[in-house]
């Protein structure tokens, strides 16, 4: 009996009109949804990290768009503002795209690398050069061509650091000669196979010109002597008695004693650091000059853009090696 009366009372309660009192708000229904929350927009740092993680996506367009976003974010950051992520964190994520099969992704990668601060990149040029050499000797001709563009970019912003790092001089020259199809030995049998193929018919000329230009940029950096320039500037600024001041200053490099290889494994001739112009000239004359000059003579016979590019490389060699005899 008691439960029946309770049910009747509850039923009446549903149809009763609640009395409102002055100064008090109307009571909220039991099934009310709270909409007072506010959504937080993602921060610029979190978006940057998100796009970095998308660089390993399987979709070409997603990788390309992420590279484009990173390039824009780095280029438009405020002046003197630090990078959203350090270069040491970014490079292991973006450098593998050097060997990506999509031309658009490789082009966008080069734009991103150009946007990075050059001062930070010089300390990591050895890491960059590993992927450049892998691209130069790749089986796909378009990947080889893109790697030539990266080599010219690296030679422009960090020429001395590039040719002075371990393997930067000998290994890179060997990679370029392999891309051209030039053997190291000057023998008739070694040169009977002809030049290397650069992909589709009609594209050999442009690809060979780019390869010769990459070789020219590397040789120009290798035959340059920034230490001598510093000494000349020191003489002009200071003069006597502050002579050869640059030789006695603390190195500006982060690893100024890396050439001693105190804690690393033993290095062979190819992996050595050739920080002096004279050492690079000696190795070049002993191992590469004869084969490269023979290959350039063959390229000059083709005429056109290839011949002009080969003549430009030959001029760089003659100017860079003209003082070697006096030193040897």
Written account of the structure:
The protein has 328 residues and is mostly helical. The protein is built from 16 helices and no strands. It has helices spanning 2-15, 44-53, 60-75, 87-94, 103-115, 118-122, 125-136, 141-164, 170-180, 204-222, 226-237, 245-248, 277-287, 289-300, 304-320, 324-327. α5 runs parallel beside α8 (141-164). The longest helix has 24 residues, at 141-164. The protein is elongated, with a radius of gyration of 32 Å. It starts with a helix and ends with a helix. The model is unreliable at 197-202 (pLDDT under 50).
What is the topological layout?
Blueprint (H helix, E strand, L loop, with lengths): L1 H14 L28 H10 L6 H16 L11 H8 L8 H13 L2 H5 L2 H12 L4 H24 L5 H11 L23 H19 L3 H12 L7 H4 L28 H11 L1 H12 L3 H17 L3 H4 L1
Helix pairs in contact: 3-5, 5-8, 7-8, 8-10, 9-10, 10-15, 14-15
């Amino acid at each position: 009996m008691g439960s029946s009366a309770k049910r009747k009372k509850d039923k009446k309660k549903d149809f009763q009109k609640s009395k409102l009192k002055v100064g008090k708000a109307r009571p909220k229904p039991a099934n009310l949804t709270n909409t007072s929350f506010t959504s937080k927009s993602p921060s610029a740092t979190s978006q940057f990290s998100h796009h970095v993680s998308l660089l390993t996506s399987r979709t070409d367009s997603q990788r390309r768009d992420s590279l484009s976003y990173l390039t824009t974010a780095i280029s438009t950051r405020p002046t003197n503002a630090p990078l959203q992520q350090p270069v040491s964190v970014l490079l292991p994520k973006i450098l593998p795209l050097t060997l990506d099969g999509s031309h658009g992704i490789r082009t966008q990668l080069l734009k991103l690398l150009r946007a990075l601060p050059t001062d930070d990149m010089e300390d990591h040029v050895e890491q960059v050069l590993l992927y450049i050499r892998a691209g130069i000797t790749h089986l796909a001709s378009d990947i080889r061509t893109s790697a030539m563009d990266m080599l010219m970019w690296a030679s422009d912003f960090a020429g001395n650091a590039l040719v002075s790092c371990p393997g930067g001089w000998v290994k890179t020259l060997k990679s370029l000669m392999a891309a051209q199809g030039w053997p190291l030995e000057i023998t008739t049998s070694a040169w009977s196979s002809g030049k290397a193929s650069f992909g589709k018919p009609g594209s050999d000329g442009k690809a060979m010109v780019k390869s010769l230009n990459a070789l020219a940029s590397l040789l120009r950096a290798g035959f340059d002597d920034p230490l001598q320039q510093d000494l000349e500037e020191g003489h002009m600024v200071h003069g006597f008695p502050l002579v050869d001041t640059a030789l006695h200053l603390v190195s500006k490099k982060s690893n100024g004693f890396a050439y001693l290889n105190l804690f690393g494994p033993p290095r062979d001739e190819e992996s050595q650091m050739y920080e002096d112009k004279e050492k690079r000239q000696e190795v070049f004359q002993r191992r590469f000059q004869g084969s490269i000059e023979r290959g350039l003579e063959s390229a000059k016979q083709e005429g056109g853009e290839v011949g002009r590019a080969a003549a430009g490389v030959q001029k760089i060699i003659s100017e860079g090696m003209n003082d070697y005899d006096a030193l040897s």
